[in-house]
Amino acid sequence: MALKTLDIDALAAKTGNLYETVAILSKRARQIATQMKQELDEKLSYFEGLGLEDDPRHQEEQRRISIEYELKPEPTEIAVEEFLRDEIYYRDASKERSEEEEELR
């Protein structure tokens, strides 16, 4: 995949802090990676225990599934796109705590 330059200021502007943005993106990317890994394992688990490891049709199907997942965008890329489209929900717990403290005063 081709590298694409990102506007870091645009990313940081959404949260007001670049480091917070990176933390949000990394957490979402890990969630996506875990989900993709589970999907791949689920699809490949069908072939386990069949006892047909030498069958070329099953090998070809396993290869096709693996290549399909290799061609998908990277989890980080998906997370950044979701973040830029405002599809990721996040909250700032420290701001919520400070607001609650102010209300108690």
TrEMBL record:
Is the keyword rRNA processing in the record? no
Which chemical reaction does it catalyze? Answer: RNA(n) + a ribonucleoside 5'-triphosphate = RNA(n+1) + diphosphate
Any single GO CC term annotated in Swiss-Prot or TrEMBL for this entry: DNA-directed RNA polymerase complex
Look up the record and give one Gene Ontology term from the biological process aspect: DNA-templated transcription
Q: Name one GO molecular function term.
A: DNA-directed RNA polymerase activity
Query: What SUPFAM superfamilies does the database record attribute to this sequence?
Result: RPB6/omega subunit-like
Write the record's keywords in alphabetical order, separated by commas: DNA-directed RNA polymerase, Transcription
Q: Does the keyword Transcription apply?
A: yes
Give the main EC class.
transferase
Q: What is its EC number?
A: 2.7.7.6
Which family does the similarity line name? Answer: Belongs to the RNA polymerase subunit omega family.
Q: What is this protein called?
A: DNA-directed RNA polymerase subunit omega
